[in-house]
Amino acid sequence: RLHIPIPRFDYPVQLTDHLLNPDYQITTMREVRKLTDRVFVKPAYDRKLFTGCVVTTAKDLLKLSHVPDGAAVYTSSEWRCFFTHGYFVGIQPYARIPTTPPPSIPWLDSRLIEWTTQPSSGALDVVTFPFYAAPKIVEATDGYCLGAYGLDPYAYAELLEVRWRELLASSRQT
């Protein structure tokens, strides 16, 4: 064991004004089960009910069979926006609604400027909606435990290395 304290910052306080209010696009699992289009679905309130995922086929829905029909969920275009050393190095979709573009780089850059306690690398999970002007942040994810989700392999390797070096350096200071 490395005995490295892992900071928690799923919902950065400095970005509170930009965090997703789950009421934006609430529906129920019952409605998701009726959909025929590809959709990204995530729990609206009980974050641990299931892991957000793309539903494309009936087989995908089988993985969510434990989720009650009445469970509150939201559907959206969700983007994983990767950063290293205060710069965004990639934006990858979970599932994209065709009419909804990814968040803009200037919007994302402004969030990193506001988030003065950000780690050396990580990601912001951001949702965009066809009918809302500004994107919203679902959560932040620490760089030490991110999946690549299609990010360039070299950018991904640097992201992981940078964060692990930061964590190891901080563990030596304690």
Could you please describe the fold and organization of this structure?
The protein is 24% helix and 28% strand. It is built from 4 helices and 7 strands; from the N terminus they run βαββαββαββα. The protein has helices at 29-34, 58-62, 105-114, 153-173, and strands at 26-28, 39-43, 53-55, 72-84, 87-95, 121-128, 136-142. 26% of the residues are buried. The model has no long low-confidence stretch (mean pLDDT 86).
Descriptors:
single chain; 174 residues; alpha+beta; 4 helices
Overall spatial form: globular
Strand content: 25-35%
How far do the termini sit from each other?
Answer: 15 Å
Number of strands: 7
Helix content: 10-25%
Helix and strand sequence: EHEEHEEHEEH
Figure out the total of helices.
Answer: 4
Radius of gyration: 17 Å
Largest sheet: 7 strands, antiparallel
Mean pLDDT: 86
Uncertain segments of ≥5 residues (pLDDT<50)? none
Structural class: alpha+beta
Helix and strand layout, with pairings?
Blueprint: E1 26-28, H1 29-34, E2 39-43, E3 53-55, H2 58-62, E4 72-84, E5 87-95, H3 105-114, E6 121-128, E7 136-142, H4 153-173
Antiparallel strand pairs: 1-4, 2-3, 2-4, 4-5, 4-6, 6-7
